[in-house]
Amino acid sequence: MSCPVFQYRDENDWSVIQKRLAGRKNPDSVVQDRVRTILDNVRAHGDDTLVKYTRQFDCPTFSASQLMVPHADITASLQELPQEDLAILKESITNVRAFHERQKENSWWTTQPDGTILGQMVLPVERVGLYVPGGQGGSTPLISSIIMNAVPALVAGVEQIVMVSPPRADGTLNPYILATAALLGIEDIFAAGSAWAIGALAYGTKSIPACDVIAGPGNIYVATAKALLVGEVGIDMIAGPSEIAIVADESANPAWLAADLLSQAEHDPLAAALLVTPSSSLAAKIAAELEKQTNALPRGEIAARSLEDWGGMLITQNLEQAINLVNRIAPEHLELCVAEPWPLLGKIRNAGAVFLGHHCPEPVGDYFAGPNHVLPTLGTARFSSALSVQTFCKKTSVIAASAEYVQHHGHKIARLARLEGLEAHARSVEIRDNH
After folding, report:
1. The whole model's pTM is what?
2. Using one digit for the tens of pLDDT, what is the confidence trace for 402-427?
3. Domain 31-235 is classified in which CATH homologous superfamily?
4. DSSP alpha helices (H): ranges in 58-207?
């Protein structure tokens, strides 16, 4: 296993790094056509299509009657989990909810002396579809995804959350998925996965209601389905493979940073784990630790492939240059593992989430601290943000103009309309101005 080393001396070296990272964006060009066919079938045949694909890929004996998870099963799942695990889940939910409560926006109004009222109503969407990956046939349930996607929707005031997740081979869902949903008050849960489940959330079927916004991570089929549905429903974001960049100096612990890099590399062979440092000696120590730690990981083969194909030790001339480089990369996760991280924070322009100091590894944010772990990837942190309460809200402008307003400004509005060749627009104002 090897993690390539790159020298970053000036902006001319950026093109080499950029070209390497760009290869993660389009791993399979044939997927789009397959997903389009799946979506068309779901739109045309609804539940029958869901059953067909679920039998083919998840549960060979699956039937339409198994699509909806009985409420009794959801409630019973709370008894299947150890009390210690339930307590951890509850604390995580509390932390995430407290963080997102601070994101809520209020509707507002302004009044003018002439009686005009202007404002903005902030309203939640009515129904959200939440996709939850099953995780290796249901053996590794992505419970954190439920929390991170559901909590901001609940804080926003969404009336109904519809959750879908691929069933295990016996047609059931992992009790950890059901119990986490139960703790969040989610009652509408369906056993369906992949692109066909996304199609059901978008179009609606006999069993699954159509939703206004779809959120939640998934494989390339899920991501492609969401991308194809942009414009028909709202989506959280089109997320790519996970990534981390770590800016470090000689004060960092090589074993710790190797563990942090592997925490992303184990996700996916397409994950990118990057060290950015002015210290060649630190990079060498971390490389040795990566070799040792990778061999001890259950998902070591995946991590090794990720590091070889997409990882990198990026050696800069100084910390200032390191910050310049990570701003170009715009990573999903950014760790500042330096002696004095806070002075560097103000220089960060592009990152999904920033983790400061030697004792704040990325998993702290993934599971427990409170900020959302659904973050922009593939450089999109340059212009987009983490999943938030705003993802599940819409804003409606309110305008109440008075007679005085039209009399004073009507001729100006009419002039602008006529400049655009829209005579009826102009007359709709003037007819009020004259009466």
Report:
1. 0.92
2. 888 999 999 999 999 999 999 999 99
3. Nitrogenase molybdenum iron protein domain (3.40.50.1980)
4. 71-80, 83-101, 143-156, 175-184, 194-203
